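Morning!

This is the sequence you dropped in the shared folder:
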Amino acid sequence: MKIGLLNAYAYNPGSEDFQQEYGPMFQRFFREHFPSDFILEEYNVTQRSWPNSLQECDGWIIGASQHSVHDKNSWITKLMEFACACHFNQKPLIGIGFGHQVIAHALGGEVNKSRKGWGAGVRDFKIRQQKPWMTPELTGCSLNFSHKDQVDMLPGEATLLAGDGFCLHQMYAVGDHVLALQGHPEYDQVFMQAWLSENKKNLTEACHEQVLASLGQPTDSSVVGDWMRQFFMLT
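The structure's back. Tokens below.
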């Protein structure tokens, strides 16, 4: 099975910016949780690298970004059109972080800047509903986060799977062909430390200390990686 990663992390390829590590980090995450007969094809959409059609891969993942769905970039508009096409054709699609917001916005939901500030570091949230591919089952989940925007209203066809008081719509599904989650199972400790160093100037002192203290805590990224694999296998 061939899975396409629409990598929306914009960076300058000639720089030492930590953000260029996103693609290799996702490749490592993919290899850890998907069998060898799964292939990950990466498209750097901010660099105008796009698939020729939906049929180029068996399923798709829209990954993280430092951008907002409200930014005026042509590639963001194109990404939303791609999400709509996947939904219309019931093509398996996973959205992570920014991708989670892109899908919600494209399908008629609402994405806004959080009034609570940054959701960052290791955070816990509650599982509200189970799907067949969510094995092993969890009642609560911990993942790395880094978001200012969040989904305030789900698309009309969506089913809420997880949330908490900070972000009500942490995880949702649309039919059997769309999975979206705000947290980042693909983020590793090195990436989060680099993210925190880069964004320290944008965080309050209290938020910075909270994020820094959380980074040593365990996460359920391995379980969520298994969920993603099973989602593609059962869809």
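Headline: The chain has a mean pLDDT of 95.

More detail when I'm at my desk.
O.
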